[in-house]
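Batch manifest, entry 17 of 40.
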Amino acid sequence: MIPVSDPPHASAGPDAAVDESRLEELIIEAQTALPFELSALANRCASALGLDTALIYLVDLQQRLLIPLDEALEPLPVADSPAGWAYRTISPQVADADHGVIVWMPLVDGAERLGVLAVRTAALDGVRIRRSRMLAHLFAMLITSKRAYSDWLAARTRTTTMRLPAEMLRAFLPPHTVGSSKCVSTAVLEPAYDIAGDAFDHSVVKNVLHTMILDSMGHDLASGLTTSVAMAAARNTRRGGGELADVVGSVDEALARWLPDHFCTGVLCRLDAETGVLHWVNCGHPPPLLIRAERVLDGALDSPPQPPLGLAGELAPTARQVHRTTLKPGDHVLLYTDGVVEARDTDGLEFGLDRFTDFIIRSSAAGQRPAEVLRLLIHAILDQQPNQLRDDATILLFEWRPQHR
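Output type: structure tokens
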């Protein structure tokens, strides 16, 4: 397995001619191609670029396996394979193969890791690396555009049957990772196929990052419905240009009107990625944690208690309090539900807040990207469970990095 860096300006050899007219036809065809046809389309595009073959692998819901779109092939492990290395590090890897090499290219849409593209070629040079990367960019966009309406793509990335509450809630969830050149937000949610009341949301509007984590009371369809209504109300007001206080107020009002016997705790944040100014509202939830210079700043984002979402009118007649602070470059803000720290191992020992934050700090210091940090963390929590989590466990981590390029 060989890491591959970007070639500066590789020149094309005599065998590097591209059939541009054929490539144009294939790109036009891609607009109407059905999701299950993407495997064959990838091969035809690879041929037009002077490559041999191309195989698409998408990561499963729990980010443990890379599952091929070609149903005749077997999945590959994320933890221990050249393909998994490309996925985890978001960098191309090269492995020897019969009569040539395989270039494993990460499939990434914006900040979201989708899987990998396996490009087989007889020889390796800068031109072929660049064309392989171009092919990966193309198919990342195609997969993102088509998975929004494809049950087949959704089914390919599942390894077991999903319960109805989880199916309903996952229809509302955004991508695991979103971001820009100045900020990134990433989240994980378990148990993947059996969630009920936990949820996360994040969105970038111009230079503003909006994040939210929710924990609805109960573990049934009504809990998922409560969280779904809360997310819909927040997005509706946010997309209408409302400020953070307006967003929280709309959630309170929607739950009180449509689900008067249900409520949820939550934290809603608004980060100005230009200035680092962070506004947040905590509604009966564990306080956010601020990680700076590889340590947790105790109490930095604590705030006076406020009632859960949906109960503001009953318990607190005054308006919600919006809190403000200014982050420093490189700061991380961590939102989580109590199912994370209350997870217990076979001896009954809780995972705990200290172990939770220490894992994130050490992984980040080791150079892991935020999305990979959370993937490793949620697997560490799951792997210590004798059967399954007693409660949903949701983690959202966002970072302000104004000098990032």
